Amino acid sequence: MKTVVVCSGGLDSVTLAYLVRHEHILDRLVTFDYGQRHKVEIEYAARAAADLGVRHDIVDISMLRPFLAGSALTDNVPVPDGHYAEDSMRATIVPNRNPIMLTIAYGIAAADDADFVAAAVHGGDHFIYPDCRPEFIKAFAAMQDLALDGVWRVGLLTPFVDKSKAEIVTIGAGLNVPFERTWSCYRGGEVHCGTCTERREAFALAGVADPTDYADR
Amino acid sequence: MKTVVVCSGGLDSVTLAYLVRHEHILDRLVTFDYGQRHKVEIEYAARAAADLGVRHDIVDISMLRPFLAGSALTDNVPVPDGHYAEDSMRATIVPNRNPIMLTIAYGIAAADDADFVAAAVHGGDHFIYPDCRPEFIKAFAAMQDLALDGVWRVGLLTPFVDKSKAEIVTIGAGLNVPFERTWSCYRGGEVHCGTCTERREAFALAGVADPTDYADR
Fold first, then answer.
1. Could you give the CA distance from residue A195 to residue A199 in angstroms, rounded to a whole number?
2. B90 lies in a domain?
């Protein structure tokens, strides 16, 4: 089944692209440029598409930034400690980012008569981001079925929605994903800074050798 | 309740803006530039915002066009008569347009801590466009509740979803909407071409004087 993969260039979504190539027909990778600081990941997505021999669409939605910047985002003032989780969330996330990117990916899939959109939302994100939870994914797919009813039929694949990052590493290792050609760091350095432990821990827990070059060893 | 109105500059959505100002707190109008031929309608939306004394955001999503253009759209060949309705639909509509515009409008509303997004989908569009039907609207609002859960709370207002265009004209007349300052023609002329009868009929059925200047009288 012809599948459009939303790919940031990170470990999860590049592994997803390899999994889709293994189980379906990989149509293309779609990467969103939303003005992220860690733009280097877009180059990693481009490399993954080249490695996989598929088309790569970079969709520039950075013009949405001024519209989506709430006060906490534009003030450039860190949210003080002790605030409610809700306030911290509002300060650190782009409002409605996943629904926006997924509806655009659905439009691309429909225009190309693809059967599926695949997205790499995974279990580790559930507690933080509401738009990564299984209930959201189910509701999103149901909404899209109605939106395209009778004209196109596009399904949503999220094989990692109940998986941990360590499980994704295990799956990727089985597919020979070149992990050194994926990018997980939110800072814009030359190599992964290594202060965020999520990626390191996933390799350790999976018992897979970590090929990543970290600034902080 | 603070409300963001998606406004194309057409009769329906300008009437919606006046209705929202009457019943809620009108926050702003949001207009999408998706590379439509009838760009003049964007100027009508800007005028409506000025008339109403509210902010006007023009969100340029025309960069999505190359990604959303399927073969039938890019070939520039009219779809032959006698094709299935499905094929005609595919040829003439931008895939997933309403879900894309609505998710962006939700992002804007969330960033501005607004309570509602209002959209002018109406009864007359149900048979043609799946993403104007009440089932879609309900599913879309449910999806957004889950996507923003615990962080923002934004509802969806679609007061015209079960109304005909004639009923919208009646509502607009009651709110003193300056109908001559709205635009309904998909062709890019100086005045409404008048060959599409939908707008004319709505005024006639509503028994409201039609102030529109039509090229085809």
1. 10
2. yes
Query: Would you report the helix, strand and coil content of chain B in percent, each value rounded to 5?
Result: 45, 15, 40
Longest CA span, chain B: 55
Q: How far is B175 from chain A (nearest CA, A)?
A: 30
A40 Cβ partners below 8 Å, 6+ apart? A9, A183, A188
- Number of folded domains that form chain B: 1
Strand order in the sheet with B2-6: B55-60, B25-33, B2-6, B116-118, B155-157
Instruction: Confirm whether A148 is domain-assigned.
Output: yes
| DSSP 8-class letter at B55 | E
pLDDT tens-digit readout, A66-87: 888 754 434 444 444 444 455 5
Best residue of A6, A32, A33, A67 to probe chain B, by most B CBs closer than 10 Å: A67
Complex ipTM: 0.90
Q: Percentage of chain B with pLDDT > 90?
A: 68
- Cα distance between residue B99 and residue B142, in whole Å: 13
Question: Could you tell me if A183 and A38 are in contact, meaning their C-beta atoms sit under 8 angstroms apart?
Answer: yes
In a domain, A203, yes or no: no
Interval A148-166: pLDDT, tens:
998 899 999 999 999 999 9
The residue range of the domain holding A98 is: 2-185
CATH number for the domain spanning A14: value is 3.40.50.620
- What pLDDT score was predicted for residue B36? 73
Distances A53 to A49, A56, B113 between C-alpha atoms, Å: 6, 9, 43
Query: What is the mean pLDDT of the segment spanning A205-212?
Result: 96
Is residue B216 scored above 90 in pLDDT? no
Residue contact B139–A135, C-beta within 8 A: no
Per the domain annotation, does A162 fall within a domain? yes
